[in-house]
Amino acid sequence: MTANLLCAKRIAASLLTFGALASATMATAAPVGAAELSYAADAVSGPLDVGAVGEGEANAGTPAVGPDGTLVWSTPTSSHARPMSAATAQGWIAVIAIADGARIRSRPVDGPVLGTIGYGAGFWVSCTRGASDGHAWGWSYRGGTYGWVRGDLWEVEQHTGPGGGGTPRVPRCP
């Protein structure tokens, strides 16, 4: 009986040790998991900033606030137009909308909507800046309209073909 009692004590000690190790492992892993979840939630937090075709027409003539704080008035042209090829020489980077109806606003987060950009449509971004909603916003141009488009609604065009020069990185706004 003494041998059985000793064996039971060893098993109990082993279980306690295993339980302590498991708890320590879970406690150590929890912050990493929470950080990953937090990062994933930040990447897709809140509703997308998208609207319907024609949204923003009521705001025609409303200027956008440029990265340096100056007011920039748009001169809308064809919604399919891009600035001439000189735009890339001036620091504009070609991007593609990855959400249908991406809003272009006069200022990040809550500025008046100046227009929308359809899924797959190309436009230009010169720089990005963080905003109060936790997202990066890109200073953008499409079809004569300047404004801000939330960064999770577009991606840089890939330039990997012959002579493509790789995919550029959008710089931070000054």
Short description:
It is built from two helices and nine strands, in the order αββαβββββββ. It has helices at residues 2-43, 86-89, and strands spanning 64-65, 71-72, 93-97, 102-105, 113-117, 122-130, 136-142, 145-150, 154-156. Mean pLDDT is 75; it is low at 12-42.
Labels describing this entry:
two-stranded antiparallel sheet, 2 domains, 26% helix, 2 helices, globular, alpha+beta, 5-stranded antiparallel β-sheet, single chain, SH3 type barrels, 174 residues
Descriptive report:
- The structure is a single chain.
- The protein is an alpha+beta fold and 174 residues long.
- It folds into 2 domains: 1-45; 57-156, SH3 type barrels (Roll), CATH 2.30.30.
- The protein contains 2 helices and 9 strands; from the N terminus they run H-E-E-H-E-E-E-E-E-E-E.
- A 5-stranded antiparallel beta sheet has the order 8-7-6-3-9, with no helix packed on it.
- Residues 12-42 have low confidence and may be disordered.
CATH architecture of the largest domain: Roll
Count of the domains: 2
Shape: globular
CATH topology of the largest domain: SH3 type barrels
How many helices? The count is 2
